[in-house]
Amino acid sequence: MTQTAQLAGKTAVITGSNSGIGLGIAWEMARAGADVVLNSFTDRDEDHALAEQIAAETGVTARYIKADMSKGGECRALIETAGRCDILINNAGIQYVAPMEEFPTEKWDAIIAINLSSAFHTTAAALPKMRAAGWGRVINVASAHGLTASPYKSAYISAKHGIVGMTKTVALETAREPITANAICPGYVLTPLVESQIPDTAKKYGMSEEEAKQKVILERQPSKEFATVEQLGGTAVFLASDAAAQITGTTISVDGGWTAL
Description:
This protein is an alpha/beta fold and 261 residues long. It has eight helices and seven strands; from the N terminus they run E-H-E-H-E-H-E-H-E-H-E-H-H-H-E. It has a seven-stranded parallel beta sheet with strand order 3-2-1-4-5-6-7, with helices on both faces. Helix 5 (154-173) links the parallel strand 5 (136-141) and strand 6 (179-186). The longest helix is centred in the middle third of the chain and has 29 residues, at 105-133.
């Protein structure tokens, strides 16, 4: 089977996918032949235009479905509205940074809801569809922070550690079935959001933009290179492929050596 058709006939639902990592994964899924469902909490013309662009350039079916990942009912409704969900990619996430004693309760609740609880709801709704189809892949986008920690990110790190643990549980519950569950743990990824922060970081520290990337942003990433959304998408395609049929309940780090330290 060719690279461009290896996921033909499958449908991938990617949460939080109208930009950044999620959108990159959606593109690579489509290039591998999977139909894709994009998602975010907005419902703009440009959201639907992204799906139309993917469909036009790859020849797959692509749709955009609005759903707020902070609400369990909408998470489950996303899967039901999608109709089919052979490959579920739980990617939606937000971040907030503050010391523990100053961390706003509402920020904690929102991060746990969007980064962790949403994956519980979507997975619970998707597994019956995968079982009915006789095949399925759950791919959770965790983080290097799902395997290690940093100060001031208590909610994010708790959620990402939770995602890793939930991934293992789903893998064990489906181990005797043609369904796998794995987590991708990225380090720093060159998304439009990160790219936009480089000039401000350079200005703050009185450095060139290249120095800011190497010495500040990528301080903990030994390769001193960003991962790309295409690399993460390629990792997701691999985990969805037949080559990964016996890979389940584990994490794949795409972090330039961060968690090797």
